[in-house]
Write a structure and sequence with these properties.
By secondary structure, this protein is an alpha+beta fold. The protein contains 4 helices and 9 strands. It has one domain: STM4215-like. The strands form 2 sheets. A 6-stranded mixed β-sheet has the order 1-2-5-8-7-6. A hairpin with a 5-residue loop joins β3 and β4. It starts with 10 loop residues before the first helix and ends with a helix. The N terminus is likely disordered.
């Protein structure tokens, strides 16, 4: 096993990070909010069927998880550490998360104001790296947050799948969340030849 395996952050940790960063921004002196509650929240687990969005808040909802194959390393079965040692590993899984931010306020213009602030924040913080992602661990990789504009047909499909009426919302792609094998074993000379056949 690899002596000092780096911290493996999870999907929930990434979404909590996004929620906390947005709440810190929306509750800052630049954008004061009269409410003491955080404006960005997760969906209530007891209100999933039918789905319910909290009134007076922006709900963060994970819509899809997609494996990213374009940026995977050339040798997926080998890990080389900083000291030059090589280990046999299972191929890492690199994920893109598709996240929907839904604003539900009594005043329609308030929903639009909060969506504008979310877009403004991610426009200035498209790449989240250290120290922004320090909460995910010292060796965590940067996260790229991209605004996704869906055709109307695809938007209708999402809202129909959720079985709720449309609310003002924005859709983002978060990449990359990486899962790595924690049970690495040293590579022998014989295994070296075997691994080459899979490249």
């Amino acid at each position: 096993m690899l002596p000092s395996a780096e911290h493996q952050y999870m999907i929930n940790e990434v979404l909590v990070l996004l929620k906390n960063r947005l709440n810190a921004y929306l509750n800052s002196d630049w954008h004061p909010d009269e409410s003491r509650e955080d404006p960005v929240v997760f969906i209530d687990g007891e209100k999933m069927d039918p789905l319910g969005f909290k009134l007076g808040a922006i709900s963060l909802l994970l819509i899809n998880v997609e494996e990213e194959n374009v940026t995977r390393p050339p040798d997926r079965f080998r890990l080389t550490t900083a000291d030059g040692k090589q280990y046999r590993v299972q191929p890492e899984i690199r994920l893109n998360l598709y996240v929907l931010f839904v604003a539900r306020f009594k005043q329609y213009e308030e929903s639009l104001r909060y969506l504008s602030l979310i877009i403004q924040y991610f426009q200035s913080h498209r790449l989240l790296e250290h120290p922004e992602v320090s909460a995910l661990g010292d060796n965590s990789e940067p996260l790229l947050v991209e605004l996704i504009t869906l055709p109307l047909a695809e938007q209708n499909h999402i809202w129909s799948s959720l079985r709720v009426a449309y609310h003002p919302s924005v859709y983002y792609k978060v990449r990359l969340v990486v899962f790595r094998d924690k049970d690495q074993t040293p590579i022998s000379e014989i295994e070296e030849k075997t691994l080459r056949t899979f490249q």
